[in-house]
Design a protein that fits this description.
The complex is a heterodimer. Chain A is mainly β. Helices cover 0% and strands 45% of the residues of chain A. The termini of chain A are far apart. In chain B, strands 2, 4, 5, 6, 9, 10 and 11 form a seven-stranded mixed beta sheet that branches. Classes of the chains: A mainly beta, B mainly beta.
Chain lengths: 110, 117
C-alpha cells in the first residue's frame, strides 16, 4: 500500500473549519484513501473514505486532488471534541490491511 | 457506523497468567478481524489478521504462541495473551471488516488496556 505523509500537528479555533492535509504521491489507481481519528485512550473511529471523487458525510468532507496524489480532510465546524490524532491511510484491494502512520494531532482551541 | 464491541476495557493481571480479550461485531458479519497493539505515545501496530475459520496470519516479530487468536465465528474473535509479562502491558485494539474489498470499511473496538504486574 502507498505511504502517506502528514504534518505532525496543527491547531484551529473552535467553530472554524479544520483542513487536514495528506500527501500520498505514490498512490495506485485502485487504492482508496481512508481517514480515521483516535481520541485519547480510545479505539480509532472511521471518518470517511474515497477513491477519486470528493466525498461528504455527516462528520467531514474529503477532497481528493485530480491526480490523487494528495487529499484534504475538512471538519467544517471544529469543536473541542474534535481534538484527536487523525490518520490518513491508503488501502488497496483484497486482504488489504490498514497500516497506521504517526498521523496528525489536531488541537482545537476555545 | 457499524459497532465492534471489545471486552474487557481494562484488565490487570499477575505476571505469568493468561488473559483473554473478546472482540465482537454486533451488527455485521466480520469476514476478517484484526488485532493491533499500541504502546504509549506510539501509533497502532498490527499484530495479526484472521479470517473466520482459518488460522491467523501474524505480522513479523509477533509471537504466535504467545498471542493466541481464535476467530471461530463471523462475529467473534478472541486474543489470548499467554504467560503475560510486564512488557506485554499495552493497549490492545481489535478491528473487524465485512468483505475483502478496499471499499469495505474496517471498524474498531474501544480497546483493552492490559497492565501486567
Amino acid at each position: 500500500d502507498a505511504k502517506t505523509t502528514q504534518p505532525p500537528s496543527m491547531d484551529c479555533a473552535e467553530g472554524r473549519a479544520a483542513n487536514l492535509p495528506c500527501n500520498h504521491s505514490t498512490i495506485s489507481g485502485n487504492e482508496y484513501v481512508y481517514w480515521y481519528r483516535q481520541i485519547h485512550s480510545q479505539g480509532p473511529q472511521y471518518i470517511i473514505h474515497g477513491l477519486k471523487n470528493n466525498e461528504t458525510n455527516e462528520m467531514a468532507s474529503l477532497i481528493i486532488t485530480e491526480d490523487r496524489k494528495s487529499s484534504t480532510l475538512i471538519l467544517p465546524h471544529a469543536t473541542l471534541r474534535d481534538t484527536a490524532v487523525y490518520y490518513c491511510i491508503v488501502r488497496t484491494g483484497a486482504n488489504s490491511k490498514l497500516t497506521f502512520g504517526k498521523g496528525i494531532t489536531l488541537s482545537v482551541r476555545p | 457506523g457499524a459497532v465492534v464491541s471489545q471486552h474487557p476495557s481494562w484488565v490487570i493481571c499477575k505476571s505469568g497468567t493468561s488473559v483473554k480479550i473478546e472482540c465482537r461485531s454486533l451488527d455485521f458479519q466480520a469476514t476478517t478481524m484484526f488485532w493491533y497493539r499500541q504502546f504509549p505515545k506510539q501509533s497502532l501496530m498490527l499484530m495479526a489478521t484472521s479470517n473466520e475459520g482459518s488460522k491467523a496470519t501474524y505480522e513479523q516479530g509477533v509471537e504466535k504462541d504467545k498471542f493466541l487468536i481464535n476467530h471461530a465465528s463471523l462475529t467473534l474473535s478472541t486474543l489470548t495473551v499467554t504467560s503475560a509479562h510486564p512488557e506485554d502491558s499495552s493497549f490492545y485494539i481489535c478491528s473487524a471488516r465485512e468483505g475483502k474489498s478496499a471499499k469495505n470499511i474496517q471498524y474498531f473496538g474501544a480497546g483493552t488496556r492490559l497492565s501486567v504486574l
